[in-house]
Amino acid sequence: MLIRYKKAFEKIAMGLLSFMPNEKDLKKLQQTMKQYETEENWQLYLWKEEDIIGLIGVYKTDEILEVQHVSVNPSHRHEGIGKTMVKTLKEMFPDHKIVPNNQTAAFFEKCEREVEEQ
């Protein structure tokens, strides 16, 4: 289930975000969290099963959701959680087009290849 980020989840969200290659530096990670907490167009969602095991962050405009971050706990990878988060976002925002940014483009391409191979 995709839930909206709250300050109470800050530590787990920072831990998951730190798996993103461009979020390894603590100062950069703190800036990113501040952006999600203070800017209305930057929205962070957490994937919760029994525990929070993934997150997806977007920059939202009137028509587009640009995926900035996708991260899944390493012990839960290769289970389709990233794809499920994107699919759930599409269901939550049916009037928005969901597109990747430079950091998430490779993930989107991989998902599209897997769909084509099925």
UniProtKB/TrEMBL annotation:
<keyword id="KW-0012">Acyltransferase</keyword>
<keyword id="KW-0808">Transferase</keyword>
<dbReference type="InterPro" id="IPR000182">
    <property type="entry name" value="GNAT_dom"/>
</dbReference>
<feature type="domain" description="N-acetyltransferase">
    <location>
        <begin position="3"/>
        <end position="118"/>
    </location>
</feature>
<protein>
    <submittedName>
        <fullName>GNAT family N-acetyltransferase</fullName>
        <ecNumber>2.3.-.-</ecNumber>
    </submittedName>
</protein>
<dbReference type="Pfam" id="PF00583">
    <property type="entry name" value="Acetyltransf_1"/>
</dbReference>
<dbReference type="GO" id="GO:0016746">
    <property type="term" value="F:acyltransferase activity"/>
</dbReference>
<dbReference type="InterPro" id="IPR016181">
    <property type="entry name" value="Acyl_CoA_acyltransferase"/>
</dbReference>
